[in-house]
Task: structure prediction
Amino acid sequence: MSIFLMAWNPKKWKWDIDNDIEKILTKGYAECDWTCGSKQPVNGDLFFIAMVGTKNNGIFSSGIIESLEKNVISEFNKTRTNKMYGNISVLLNPKKENILSVKTLNEVFPKDKYPKLIWEPQKSGIRIVDDIHEPLMKLWVEFINSQNINYRYIKREYLEGNEQQKLYTYKERNSAARDECIKHYGYKCQICEKSMYDLYGDIGKELIHVHHINFISKTSGRYKIDPIKDLIAVCPNCHSILHRKYKENYITIDELKNIVKANPNCT
Result:
């Protein structure tokens, strides 16, 4: 799992933050999309959003990445870029509430120890180094829970913050479910029926992805997984398509199977 840092400059981009906070309070998340340069985050990666270009820069939001769209035209400078789609689960309004300031971040993660860390990026898609993932998540949750803000925010941020930590550790602990899924389905894609070994030889041996039929970010807290009913073995290509939005929606496994059957180039 990777963690990415997205940038938001309120002087350049308008954002109805209160409206998205209401969405989070109502359904648990607010959908978003963000350009991320050449970076290629995948479903399940986490992201933070940092406010830049002001006197009060810092992190004020976090969420989970759902999918990636490659090589799109940026609305800002009309250049080619990748775009990530995600769900925001924690969101503060910088105009009304304290945020996790750059000053605090630099104190906890000093420049002399982490020279490559950038908390005020000029562009989105900065990949945060792996060795600070856990302390950064801990700092973020502790910050949210320490704020003297409206009760509903405390309740929301506390629960959502913990959910982020659960998601982070839950995936690590459920390799057994993944193994059981592969044991059942084998190393052949259940959509296009190809195996990476047949295509690439030894270098593709035992290469298979495991797809959550119901996106993990749409769940609330922990839930029991059936390795056969809730997971499915798919090749990297089909997995990428399942996590790519098309006409504002994700296609289903059956829909993708029909596309593959109808396209002779896929078989």
User: Anything to note?
Assistant: The CA atoms of residues 242 and 252 lie 7 Å apart. The chain has a mean pLDDT of 81. The longest helix spans residues 151-173.
